[in-house]
Write a structure and sequence with these properties.
Blueprint (H helix, E strand, L loop, with lengths): L1 H5 L3 H6 L3 H4 L6 E2 L11 H12 L10 H17 L8 E4 L2 H12 L5 E6 L3 H8 L4 E6 L1 E2 L4 E2 L2 H7 L4 E7 L11 H13 L3 E5 L20 H4 L2 E5 L13 E5 L2 H7 L12 H13 L1 H25 L13 E5 L9 H9 L1 E2 L1 E2 L10 E5 L4 H16 L2
Parallel strand pairs: 1-12, 3-4, 3-7, 7-8, 8-9
Antiparallel strand pairs: 2-10, 5-6, 9-10, 11-14, 13-14
Helix pairs in contact: 4-12, 5-12, 6-7, 13-15, 14-15
The protein binds pyridoxal-5'-phosphate.
């Protein structure tokens, strides 16, 4: 298994049709969008090729989404210790679609929606593109990690604030929020009667000793006001297939959501549901091997940044394969991602996409082979030293 993960070559990657390796010209190494360069889990490939072999591409069976929910319940119990009731779940196309759908359902135009910045850009789009008021609660860089600013959160909430969007584990900082932090957040959400949209898509990419704790698992009060959105797509690297799940923590939330015309939402395909079921039923050994490799890569990035990239700072992520690099001390004349694109021929995600105050940051995707990662890092170091 490990050899297959390590054997990824740049030539193979450049043959792919997906976004990650087609965006830039052949002289650029891609380390931006959150797709991994590793081969797909054999159990997922078997599920898909099995359907192709029998040309099983008609409408999915009537219980296809319930099978996904059952697989999800088994996975959440085994991996995250959360006993899920599948009665109020929805199978959907993808998580970002549900961010929009939930903002539309649980707030009115002009009402406040809280986001914790810097943040995965579709959070901001889900608020602004739907005419809601963005209530920004910045994360604070502390001694060893980014932290939630609870005082800022309390101060930001007013009588027109309806929704709190949580990203846990957090993209781009890689924070895994602790039980204590989640409980404090839950208390505030309950006190102010907020609905919480909890995007937990990175839940399976957590590095020990950290542990993913679903917000809705903390207590019945917070569960009743939380919609948990997740998918197998991030940890199992099948984002192009499009299948996600929404767990509504109460029948009342689900009933409110049902006011949205379901036909507008579309739904996952037969292939994507089969892939998701395979991932959650049989994918654990593959994921464990991937996590071991990601942990090695994470340490490589941390060691290299410390020794070879003076002026770049980062907290090693507690989850995700994304390193959030603070390049402010480099005092670059352009955005950090532009500097590394032009001078190092490395395509990072621009920090400015994640907030108005992080143009001097960049996000590096380290889910690739050690050889490609070494080349990415040494190109970056060469660019910084050659300034
Ligand atoms: C926090 C977060 N949510 C959602 C997504 C995208 O999910 P989907 O492809 O299901 O829309 C990503 C992708 O990187 C992400 O990081």
């Amino acid at each position: 298994m490990a050899e297959r993960l390590l054997a990824v070559s740049e030539a193979q990657l450049r043959k792919k049709r997906g976004m990650k390796w087609t965006r830039y010209s052949a002289d650029i190494l891609s380390a931006w969008v959150a797709d991994m360069d590793f081969p797909v889990a054999p159990v997922i490939l078997a599920a898909i090729t099995g359907m192709l072999d029998t040309q099983d591409l008609g409408y999915p069976r009537h219980d296809a989404s319930q099978r996904v929910f059952d697989a999800f319940a088994g996975w959440m119990r085994a991996r995250h210790g959360w006993q899920v009731d599948t009665a109020n779940m929805l199978a959907c196309d993808d998580v970002v679609q549900m961010l929009h759908a939930c903002v539309l359902t649980f707030s009115e135009p002009g009402e406040g929606v809280i986001i914790q910045t810097p943040i995965y850009p579709p959070f901001m789009a889900a608020v602004s593109q739907n005419g809601r008021r963005m209530v920004e609660n910045r994360l604070a860089p502390c001694a060893h990690q980014w932290e939630l600013d609870f005082a800022g959160l309390q101060a930001a909430i007013d009588s027109g604030t309806r929704v709190l969007m949580l990203c846990n584990p957090h993209n781009p900082t890689g924070r895994v929020f602790s039980a204590d932090e989640l409980d404090r957040l839950a208390e505030i959400a309950c006190a102010h009667d907020l609905i919480v949209i909890a995007d937990e898509i990175h839940m399976d990419l957590v590095f020990a000793p950290h542990r993913h704790i679903p917000l809705a698992s903390r207590n019945p009060e917070i569960a009743a006001r939380t919609i948990t959105l997740t998918s197998a797509s991030k940890a199992f690297n099948v984002a192009g297939l499009h299948c996600a799940v929404a767990h509504f923590g109460s029948a009342e939330l689900r009933a409110r959501f049902n006011q949205l015309q379901p036909r507008l939402l579309g739904g996952p395909s037969a292939l994507s549901m089969a892939a998701t079921e395979a991932a959650w039923r049989e994918g654990a050994p593959w994921l464990d091997a991937v996590m071991a490799q990601l942990d090695t890569n994470r340490r490589t990035v941390a060691g290299f940044v410390t020794s070879e990239l003076p002026g770049v700072r980062h907290y090693p992520p507690q989850a995700t394969y994304l390193a959030w690099l603070d390049c402010s001390e480099l005092m670059l004349p352009v955005a950090a991602s532009k500097f590394f694109l032009d001078e190092a021929k490395v395509g990072l995600s621009p920090g400015g996409d994640f907030s108005s105050f992080t143009q001097d940051h960049a996000r590096l995707n380290f889910a690739t082979s050690p050889q490609i990662l070494d080349e990415i890092l040494s190109r970056m170091a060469g660019a910084v030293k050659g300034r």
